[in-house]
Amino acid sequence: MSLKLKSGFEFDYDNLYGEGKVTEDDLKFYEADLKKAHEALKVMREKGFIRAHLSKDGEPEKVLFSQLPYVEEGHLNSPSSLKHLQELTDHVKDNVDVVVSLGIGGSYLGNKVLFDVQCGEFWNALTKEERDGFPKVYFSGNNIDPQRTHDLIAHIEKMAKVSQSHQGRKLKVLLLVISKSGGTLDTMSNFLVIYDELKKCADVEQEVVAVTDPNKEKPTLLKKLAMEHNWPQYAVPDGVGGRFTIFCEVGLSLAACIGFDIQAFLNGAKDMDQACQNDDIWQNPAMLNAFLKFAAAEKHGRDIEVMMPYGDYMQSISEWYIQLLAESLGKQFNKEGKEVCYGRTPLVAVGTRDMHSQTQQHQEGKLNKVVQFVKVANWPVDYPIPNVFPEAKKLADIAGVTMSQALETARQSNADALTSNHRYNACFTLPKLDAYYLGQLLYMLAMSVAYEGELADVDAFNQPGVEAYKRIMWPRLNELKKENDKK
After folding, report:
1. Read out DSSP for 368-407?
2. Cα torsion at 182, 183, 189, 192 (round to 10°)?
3. Cα 320 to Cα 316: distance, rounded to the nearest angstrom
4. Other C-beta atoms within 10 Å of 280: how many?
C-alpha cells in the first residue's frame, strides 16, 4: 500500500498499516480527531492561528510556516525577498572565497541539509572553477567548542596565507551570522571569537551578513549591530520557529551562497502543501503519516521513530528531523494545561551504515520503534560492481550489480526482515535527490508534526523546555564574568 503523488513522491506504508499493525479500527477511533486536526490546519493556513499557541513571552503569536512556499508580495517569501537573496548570490559568486555559516538549531541543521544535498562532502576541496565561482563553506556556532573554533580559525588563516603568496591578494571571508535575538550563546560566542581573530589577520578581508529579527522599532542586539556597522541583513521572521526556518531567509541565505535552486525548493514545498490540503487521508501524505505514527505510538507502544535515509548525504535530513519532532511534540502539558508528558523519541540512522550498528536493536530489541526509511529512486551517477577478482566467488557473485541496486536491495531486505518480526516500518521515496523533491519531503514532515500536535492536543509550535535551561544558564554566566573580571 502506498500513496503516490503526481510528482512521483511516494509514501509506502504497507509495513505500517494492516493486520498486526496500525489497523482500520485505529483509524475509526481517531476519525473525529483527524477531522478536527484537518480543520485546525485550514485555519492555520488562512489566518495563522493555532488554538492555545503563545510565544515564549506568553503573548499570542501567529504560525506562518505554511505561508512560506507561496512567493507573493506581502508574504514572508516574496518576489522582492527572492531578489534580495539573488543579490547575495551575485555578491558571493566570483567575489567571496569563504563563507562561515554561524547558527544553531534550525539555523544550523536546516542549512546543513541544503549544503549536503547541493554540495556534498568534498565541496571545499574543489577548485573555484569546479564550484562555479561559489565560495567554500564552513559551519560554526552550533557548539561552544574552543578546540574546533581554534582549528577553523587556523585553517582560514592558512588559506589566507596561501591566497596572499599565490595570488597576491587577501582572502575574502563572509561571516553569515544567524540569530533572531543576537543573544544566542552558542552562535554569538563563536561569532565574536572568529570575528575578532580574523580581524587581526592581515591576510583576511572579512565582512558580515546578519540574519536576524527585522524589527527596526525594537531592534534586537544583532539588529542593532547590523545597523550600526551597515551589514547587509536578512530576516528571521516572527511566526516561524527555528525548526521550520529552512523555508525562509534563514535557510535560503545559505542557499543563496551555494547556488541552490531556491525556487524549485519552494515549488516542491508548495506542491506538497496543496496535496496536504486534501481532506481524504489516503491522498494527504502529512495527515496519513501523522495518523500512522501517532496511532502506532498511542495504540501499539511504538513511540520511538528511527529516521533512516539510505544515502550518506541524507544523514543531515535525519538530524534536521530530530529537532523537528523533538521540539514540536515533546511537551509536558497539553493545550488545556493538563500534564501529559507526550512525545515520540526520534533517532538518527543511515543506511546501509547503521544496518551494521543499530539493526540488531531494531530487529530484536523492544517493540517500541517505527523505522522510517527514505530512498532515492534515481541517482545521478551509478557504478556497476566490477568483477575484479573472479577467483573470489563471493565477490564475483555480486559483479554486474550496480551500487544503487545493491543499496536498494539492502534497504528492502532490512524492511522485509523487520516486518517478518512484527517491526513497524515505512518508506518515503524521492524520484531524485534534488531541490524540488527535498522541498516536498521536508515540508511534508513539517506539516506532519502540525497534524500530530493537534491529534495529541499539544502545541507543536512552542518550546518551553528549551527556555528552562536558559533561565538557569544566563545568571551563572553572569557570575562567571564577575569572577573572571576580579582576576
Report:
1. -EEEEEEEES--S---BPP-S-TTSHHHHTTTT-BHHHHH
2. 40
3. 6
4. 9
Q: Map residue 305 onto helix, strand or coil.
A: strand
Q: Which long-range contacts (CB under 8 A, 24 or more apart) does 132-135 make?
A: 132/93, 132/259, 133/93, 133/94, 134/92, 134/93, 134/257, 134/258, 134/259, 135/92, 135/96, 135/97, 135/98, 135/99, 135/174, 135/257
User: How confident is the model over 335-394, as pLDDT tens digits?
Assistant: 999 999 999 999 999 999 999 999 999 999 999 999 999 999 999 999 999 999 999 999
Q: Is the pTM of this model over 0.90?
A: yes
Is the per-residue pLDDT at 220 higher than 70?
yes
How far is 487 from 481, CA to CA, in rounded Å? 10
Determine the Cα–Cα distance for residues 269 and 102; give it in Å rounded to an integer. Answer: 25
**Residue 249 near residue 110 (C-beta atoms within 8 A):** no
Picking from 48, 184, 55, the residue whose alpha carbon sits closest to that of residue 107 is: 184
Between CA 446 and CA 91 the distance in angstroms is 32
Q: How far apart are CA 250 and CA 132, in angstroms?
A: 23
Cell numbers standing for residue 335: 493545550
Angle at 305 between CA 299 and CA 311, to 5 degrees: 145
Distance of CA 315 to the CA centre of its chain: 10
Helix (H) or strand (E) holding 254: helix 249-258
| Cis preceding linkage at 352, omega within 30 | yes
What confidence tier does 474 reach under pLDDT thresholds 50, 70, 90?
low
Residue 120 cell numbers, joined: 556534498
Helices (H), 259-284: 262-275
Which of 256, 241, 288, 260 lies closest to 436, judged by CA? 260
Determine which helix (DSSP H) or strand (DSSP E) holds 173, and give its type and residue range. strand 171-178
- Strand-pair category, 339-342 with 204-212: unpaired
Residue 333, beta-bridge partner list: 339
Burial status of residue 419 (CB atoms within 10 A of its CB: 0-12, 13-18, 19 or more): middle
Q: Is 426 helix (H, G, I), strand (E, B) or coil?
A: strand
Point out which residues pair with 421 in neighbouring strands: none
433, 435, 438, 444: CA torsion to nearest 10: -150
β-partners of residue 346 are 305
The three cell numbers locating residue 76? 514572508
